[in-house]
Amino acid sequence: MLRNYLIITWRTLLKSKVFSFINIVGFAAGIAVCLLILLYIVEETRFDRFNKNFHTLYRVAQEQNQSGIWYNVGRTPAPLATALQQDIPEVVNATRFALWGDVLLKYGDKLIEEPSGIYAEKSLFQMFDFPFVQGTYTTAFTHPHSIILTQRLASKYFGSDNPIGKQIQINNQYTLVVTGVIKDIPAHSHLQFDFVIPFEFIKEYGTDLTKWGANAFYTYVQLSEEATIEEVQAKIRNYFHTKPDRNEEILYLQALKDIHLYSQFDFNTDFGVRGDIRYVQFFSLTAGIVLLIAIFNFMNLSTAKATRRAKEVGLRKVVGADRKQLIFQFLGESLLFSLIAGILSLTVVQLALPFFNELTGKQLTITTFDPTYLGLFSGLIILVGLVAGIYPAFYLSAFSPAKVLKGQPLSVSKGVFLRKVLVTGQFSLSIIMIIGTILINRQLQYISTKKLGLTKDDLVYVEMRGQLKDNYSLVKNELLQNTAIQAVSGTNYYSMPFKWVGSDGSGGIEFPGKNPDDHFMIHNFRVQYDFIETLQLKIKEGRSLSASIPTDTASFLLNEAAVQRMGLTNPIGQPISFYDKKGIVVGVVKDFHFTSMQKEIEPALIHVSPQDISYLLIRIKPEHTKTALASIKKIVDNYSQDYPVDYHFMDDAYDALYKAEQRMSSLFNAFAILAIVVSGLGLFGLASFITAGRAREVGVRKVLGASVPSILLLLSMDFIKLLLVASLLGWPLAFLGLRQWLQNYAFQTEVTVWLFVLPSLAVCLLSISIISFHTWRVARANPAYVLRNE
User: Fold this and answer.
1) Nearest CA to 534 among 614, 649, 612, 618?
2) What is the pLDDT of residues 278-319, one digit of tens each?
3) What sections of 694-707 are H helices per DSSP?
4) Residue 52, φ and ψ in degrees, nearest 5
5) Residues 336, 342, 348, 351: is their CA dihedral positive or negative?
6) According to the model, what pLDDT value does residue 413 have?
7) In angstroms, rounded to a whole number, what is the distance separating the alpha carbons of residues 525 and 523?
8) Cβ(690)–Cβ(697) under 8 Å?
9) Residue of 172, 165, 159, 166 lying closest to 104 (CA atoms)
10) Of 597, 626, 656, which residue constitutes the final position of a domain?
11) Residue 473 burial (10 A CB sphere; 0-12, 13-18, 19+)
């Protein structure tokens, strides 16, 4: 019996080639998209699970109340880890570390800048599974001037030689001894680093690890197996209230499983590359939409061609087949379609993976014999086959053999109603996808073209080190001698727009009329002279900072947001005390964006800090890029022989802020096009069946004098009505979803009526074109041939 079913299914597949092609292509597209998204989701959700202490590890973070506004801060004070382990019985271990990136490592003739190093304690290796392949964590931390390397870094500098005991130089200043080598950090670890230096090193060079006032360290704790997160949360919530130099911050624990996907911290207090649960949810929804459209196609076409299989069902019932057998047969057909499409989808996935990896920034692979992927693939094939085939199976198996074999017309009202529902659903999903595509691209276009308050084009920055940093004035003068260079300035590391702008609590600033209980964050720009001119900021009141005015070393500029937040009605000339620096406000700059447009423009204070310089800022005259870059490279190389230095463009730094959004947009565009193509294929097949079924009606109408355009309008009107209903359903759903997405941006593109109307018109034109193709053939046919059997 099973063999017979397979033979019949195969014959049905070959007999209805258009039906089979549309369903297989639709299924293959939907399954391929789902497989790609599943690979992405599995990768995103497996972060940090390799740690044996996975379920008991937590990061300690804090919420800060700044004048009624709560901010999430990922860094904590240095003493916190030790204090929590001593004071909270449920904390069985704790560790802390600080970042030390962009470090110059030297061994022999190898001189390379490495971006990912940390200061840490040996407890890091007790809590996390970063195994040593040479040395142990107990011996690797015995001396302050030690360094632990990953296998990748050890091989990079020492090749096949044993690195233990070898000396490596850092920043041409310190010599450290390699005391351990650990396995390379897994790609699915939220902690990423290439070398570790003991905390004792920074203690030796004067860093005070007893201060509670500064948030510069990342703190992790390991709880006992018996501890409950609620109990520990309650104990640490107000822990800061008893500590010096702290305000009313609230401590909380972030589970290790949540760090990669649920980290949303303010003031650049997180580190490394993070995922986003919103993208996981977004892509899951997208995959579901594409798969639903493919399933709707199958159900539509199966019920539409029901009359062609009615006699088959009748004959089978006459010769003894019961309904269960017929249901089994039709479900088998659906599963076979799904299986063939699934095999095809594996080829599609393999071809699409390089493109998908490039867009997502992942290195995903599909391993055929991996039990996880095999299970996901098999489950998906069965689910798609059953969901797509269950209604057609029950619908087709319900035909009465007496009516069918007597030639009585079938009651297909239920089938027609379902087809209308499914077509409406397809139209709605397609419209939602198109609206989403347009809005996401409009928002990204808005971000790229909106005036920032500064000019990022033709602006180059160079990280300053060694002699380049020591000879800033000479370098600046030499650069300005080139007529292709318009202006030169410099900034501190934490004052670099679009990279990392540091913030200070308002406790460090005093100004007339300040309420002692008023707390807010102000961004601290420590810059060199000509910073305003180099970034082309606009002065609203007063003047810029000038090297020709000696007192400007103690002068301040405020942005409009700072003036408003501080409540200064006449800011020019007002005295300000910023930590140990006292001066007056000499100017107000118009608000400018210095970080992502996901955030409002926040208060900023700009002042000159002559000895505090990390980046060289160079404005090039338009259309003189090649000449200017050659000059920059020559001068910079002359002063940085001991440090490899390169230049970068400010607009690249700005674009990097929206890299995740750009990737999401590209993927959504591809999926939207795929969804529309699958919908179009389904509509093509459905229109073919419907117009063929109404051929006699068209013939009669033509005999009675109906014109071809009137017949086109008649057959298209049903679809146009469904499209109108689909639009009315799709518009509010799209609006709600996209409004939620836009809330991530403080600055948003305008949402107009045309954003919703145009996608509906586009789907309408596509539908009418497809329907007209089939209707035209039927309407142009000779009525005599159509009606000759009547």
Assistant:
1) 618
2) 888 888 888 888 888 878 877 777 766 655 566 666 666 666
3) 695-703
4) -65, -25
5) negative
6) 47
7) 6
8) no
9) 172
10) 656
11) exposed
- Segment holding 99, helix H or strand E: strand 91-99
Extract the tokens encoding 724. 């109108």
The H or E element containing residue 9 is: helix 2-15
The answer to whether residue 311 is domain-embedded is: no
In a domain, 138, yes or no: yes
424, 432 contact by CB (below 8 A):
no
Helix 277-304, helix 413-449: angle, nearest 10: 150
Could you list the beta-strand ranges (E) of 655-700: none
Residue 84 lies in a domain: yes
pTM summary value? 0.80
pLDDT 10s digits, 678-712: 777 777 777 776 776 666 777 777 777 777 777 77
The number of domains in the chain is: 2
The structure tokens listed for 375 are 């299970």
Partners of 389 in the β-ladder: none
Lowest mean pLDDT among 11-25, 534-548, 551-565, 668-682: 11-25
What does the alpha-carbon distance between residue 141 and residue 146 come to, in Å, rounded to a whole number? 7
Quick check: 161 and 168 in contact, CB under 8 A? no
Pick the more confident residue, 505 or 346. Answer: 346
pLDDT tens, residue by residue, 56-98:
999 999 998 766 678 888 989 999 999 999 999 999 999 999 9
Helix (H) or strand (E) holding 609: none
Beta carbons within 10 angstroms of residue 424's beta carbon: 22
Instruction: Tell me the residue range of the domain where 148 lies.
Output: 78-245
